[in-house]
Amino acid sequence: MKRSMLNMLALSACTVAFNAHAQKFDGLAATPQMGWNSWNTFACDINEKLIRDTADAMVKNGLKDAGYEYVNIDDCWHGKRDEKGVIQADPERFPSGMKALADYVHGKGLKIGIYSDAGATTCGGHPGSRGHEYQDAQTYAAWGIDYIKYDWCDTKGLNPVGAYTTMRDAIRAAGRPMLFSMCEWGDSKPWEWAKDVGHSWRTTGDIYLCFDCEFSEASYSRWGVLQILDKQAGLRVHSGPGHWNDMDMLEVGRGLTEDEDRSHFAAWAMLASPLILGNDVRKMSDATKRILTNKEVIAINQDKLGIQAWRFMQAGRLEYWAKPLDKGEWAVMILNRSEQAMPVSYQWTNHRVNDDMSKRVLDTTKTVYTWTDAWTGKTGDTSKKLESKLAPHGAIVLRLKARS
Looking at the structure, do residues 272 and 333 belong to the same domain, yes or no? Predict the structure, then answer.
């Protein structure tokens, strides 16, 4: 029997065995989680002042009011374990301690997240949680942590189903509801087994700061926006309230063009991915702020049905994506993958869009829908051909409602 088949059987067996254990906390991530994470911009250059200042900025610049609630500390916050094995925060970077920092963030009306790893060491070489899962979960609960991002470095010999389920059970035993964000990079197809384990799971390797590229090193690749989008094909059936396909942290505001930023944000919103910011929110341009606080695009992401969009048509370098929304509404995204401006000419009355998964139909051949452009506020209806011109790597996002 091939090794891949043996591995699949082992994963299935572990799934059955662990399903009998304690369940994850319900009521978290009913819609995709929204927040900020330190890694994309700051990597290991973090300290408690940065986290406090970020929380302050999220309140001041409107991100909190827009729905972003988690302030997540990624790798490199760790100090050493004490004589009892209890993990400590780095005393130089976090001299006040994590409990005081959590209290500060909570005092701003926000929630706080932290990072660990299923292996003995994190990706940055700090103490991981292997062999300390229950101890670490209890420590995080005592600190007041609300969110755990759990990585997959230094995990040789570990089974992902077992490792992630162990931490899930440890979180449950600690007694504090903490959102469990699995960062296993999609290697073991967590969408097939993790619905009852985590609240979200990464579907790919790490994002890279480009719109259309792959950055490869000896043992792994990092992916541009379009590459991550393409890797979501076939995964939408596994996503929904409380269990989301995570397309990784956003690169909006970190060097892409403004059109690319809008398309990046729109794609993550349409596909119901968690919206975790990766930019320096203390120093946002007005354009970045407008994108990240766009109420219409955020509402599409946060729609309570939690149905992930799919590509229903492709015309050359133009892609057409649809997402069923609550109350019979729809969202449609037209994405220009080209590095050239492209004309859009879409005759609504010629198209009937069927979603076999949700059993919803966008039938613009018989029903007239009014539409609103989420970026510009422009309105129209489907009785007339949609004609526009899309900038290179640009995207139109429309919200449709049947005319009564």
Answer: no
Whether 52 has a pLDDT exceeding 50, the answer reads yes
Cβ atoms of residues 161 and 14 within 8 Å = yes
CB 45 within 8 A of CB 73: no
Structure tokens at 150: 């759990």
* Residue located via tokens 């930023």: 261
Secondary structure element (H or E) that encloses residue 287, with its range: helix 286-292
User: Are the C-beta atoms of 230 and 269 separated by less than 8 Å?
Assistant: no
Q: In this structure, are 222 and 99 located in the same domain?
A: yes
Q: What is the pLDDT of residue 10?
A: 39
Show the domain range for 34.
22-301
Q: Which residues pair with 180 in a beta bridge?
A: 148
Number of domains comprising the chain: 2
pTM exceeds 0.85:
yes
Distances (CA, A) of 56 to 229, 282, 321: 32, 9, 36
Which residues are identified as catalytic?
151, 206
Is 287 in the same domain as 345?
no
- Taking alpha carbons only, the member of 147, 154, 260, 140 closest to residue 212 is 260
Average pLDDT, integer, range 166-188 = 98
Least confident of 87-91, 187-191, 215-219, 334-338: 215-219
Percentage of the chain beyond pLDDT 90 is 93
- Contact (Cβ atoms closer than 8 angstroms) between residue 46 and residue 158: no
Residue 3 inside a domain? The answer is no
* Mean pLDDT within 208-230: 93
Task: Give a yes or no: residue 10 inside a domain.
Answer: no
CATH number at residue 387: 2.60.40.1180
Residue-wise pLDDT for 92-121, tens only, equals 999 999 999 999 999 999 999 999 999 999
